[in-house]
Each structure stands twice: as C-alpha cells, then as structure tokens.
C-alpha cells in the first residue's frame, strides 16, 4: 500500500468488511454505493491523486478523484437510478451521497446523454472527505468486489505518474487561418442577408506531443492558473477530455438553479489582473453586447418554463480568466417541483454561446461549412448526486488527449459586423488556456 495513505486502506477494509452481507444481496439491475466519511484531514496531506476521472472546483472547495465504472448507460438508466432509492442502494455516510458523471455531445452532434457511476470516488467538500464505493451486479463475489475497491482506492491515492514532458513536436490548424477567416466573412454575410442572427464558428488545433501526458497532471496545472473554473478530466473515446470550463450551464442545489450567460470576449493580457481599456471597450461594444444578449435571452426563455421565479441582472458584469475577459450574466431561479438538473441541461444545450441563434438554423449553417467538432468540445460534462443535485459545465477551453495526440478546439460568436482577423485572435486567446500547459516546457 502507498506510503501517503495515512491509514486510509485499513479504515476502508474495516468499513467494507462491515458491509459484506449487503454486497451479497446485490441483484441484477441494482447498484450499491457504500459511502464512508473519512476521518480528519488525513487526505489533505496526500501528495497528489491519480485515477481516470477527476473534477476540481477551487471556488467551492470541492474535488472528486475517481476510477473505474460500476455502471454506465443513457439517460433512462440514470433516471431509474436517481428516482428509485431501491435501485441505487446507499449505505452509510452522513453527507457523502454517491454520484454519477454525465456528458452531452458537442453542440454540432446529435447523440444522447451518457453517464457512469465510478467504482471508487474520493470526494472533498471543503475540509470534509469521504469515499464512495459503488458496484453494479456483474456476477462477481463480494470478496472480488471488495478487493477491486481496495486496489482502485490505492491507485487513486498515489501521486500522478510522471507521464512524460508535455513538449509539442508538431501542430496543425484545421481549417487553416485563411479558410477560417473566409468562413467568418461568409457567415457575417449570411447574417446580413437575414439567414440567422449569430453562429459560433470553431476550429481545431491538433498537437503531436513528444510523449503521452498524464491528464491528472494537466488538471493540477490548469487548476493553478484557472482557479475560478471547473477543471476536469473525464475518460472519453479511448482517451481523456481535459477542460478548464468557465461556463456553468446549470448548477442545481435543492430547488435553486443557476446558469451562466457568457458571451462577448476581450483579451486579458495577464500582466495585470485586469486590462481596464479592453474591459471598457468590451462593455461599450454594440456587437459584443448584442452577441451576449442573444445568449442571456435564450437561457432566460428556457429557464422561464422550468422556474417559479427567475432573476436576471439588468446589465452584464465581467468574468476575468487567465487569458480572456468575458461579459457575464449569471441567471438564478427557483425550480418548479419535479424539474431535474438533467431536464434543464438537456433543454439549454447547446446555448447560443456555442451554437448560434436561432439554434437549428445556426447548426445547419455550421453543418454546411463542414464543422465537425470532436472530443467533447462545446458539449457538456457534469456530475449529479443521488439527491439530484449537481452541476453541468460547458466543455470549453478543452483538449482531447489520446496517447501522444491532442486535439484542441476554440470558437467565437460571429455576428453581422464581425472582423475575421479579430475573431481569429479571439480563438487564439481561447486556445492559449490549454496551450499554456505546454508553454514552459
Ligand atoms: C466558443 C467558446 O466560448 C464561448 C464563446 C464566447 C464568445 O463568443 O465571446 C465566450 C464564451 C463562451 O461562451 C470557446 O471557448 O471556444
């Protein structure tokens, strides 16, 4: 066992042994989650975590470190788990509700929601730590399940692997700069002809790395520079999606719901915390303000259907990030009884911040231009607990890593008066969030 574990494995072994009889009753279709509050601050001294899934949210003091999949599936299966306590049996743990991770595809794709419940998940809420061990019915004996939990727990509590130096050997932009700028001009012309109001054009930067990198290390480094964002790494399509997302599509706690209207971008040079001139120009720009208003109006219209009350600030504020500043309008409401986080996320996604407006016309236009977003860029990633509370983030400032290949994406909201060179610069600044991971190598 790992030297940094501070007696956690022994503690887990005893807790698991006490639940052995319940494990033996696991029936087909059921999931059992054993939630154990961990003693004191032993985990705070841990020198890094591993695993194949993590979610870190510095502003809330929340972090999840997870490994394995106890069960996975689509929205129906997740609804069944969430709605029937008898199907997702929870044992122990004062506050440590079990949880699932879920994703929605990129704005331009049409797949459904998918989810998984990790086998082992360490959960931090401020100073409180717990571990949630989950198992689906797969024919294994209680002893085998227990052994697997302990092995995975031990692997998570090991510092992240070295994983090579993140040095870039080569890169390729698709489409190239000239083609992308021409697309921007074409899009603005289509808007002036009245086809739609806004479209979010994106582009890909493919990197070839000298060696594979450990996504866990990337998350740690992103957290150091993007402390206001949700930073995560999720297993996806044979690799990992890593992101530092500034945009919360939906956050639900009890019946309170929150959604970020985020659109309109200026540079944030990084030398000073805030670039005042760029910020004032952003606020004063008719183009940026209407691009922003389209997003806020669309989110508000969708939330109205779900909410008893909805609050919406009359003017946007600013969200300052490591490389850019955005116009930001947080909307908050009280949900009607029975409305779930997944209902809200599925309705809002994709917002005009990542697709355009009206949604279907803008998406048809992107399709015509041949934009095929990969990884989870402009999709959604989130977590939901057994009470139905959780968070859905828009997958932005992101890259998909598989072996030595990385695929980075960024986009910009195109309006009638867009300047192709300025929009290209905006995508460069957005890409820099992920490129900064490699800059000092
Ligand atoms: C599309 C992206 O970001 C979105 C688009 C923005 C804009 O057009 O101003 C700002 C924030 C995000 O909602 C991206 O990061 O790729």
Automatic annotation (TrEMBL):
Keyword check for Isomerase: yes
Pfam families: Chorismate_bind
Family listed: Belongs to the isochorismate synthase family.
InterPro entries: ADC_synthase (IPR005801), Anth_synth_I-like (IPR019999), Chorismate_C (IPR015890), IsoChor_synthase (IPR004561)
Record-linked SUPFAM superfamilies: ADC synthase
PANTHER family per UniProt: ISOCHORISMATE SYNTHASE ENTC
Keywords: Isomerase
Protein name (database record): isochorismate synthase
Catalysed reactions listed for this entry: chorismate = isochorismate
GO molecular function per UniProt: isochorismate synthase activity
Coiled-coil residue spans: none
Keyword Membrane annotated: no
Organism annotation: Afifella marina DSM 2698
Domain Chorismate-utilising enzyme C-terminal: 177-430
EC class (word): isomerase
EC number(s) reported in the record: 5.4.4.2
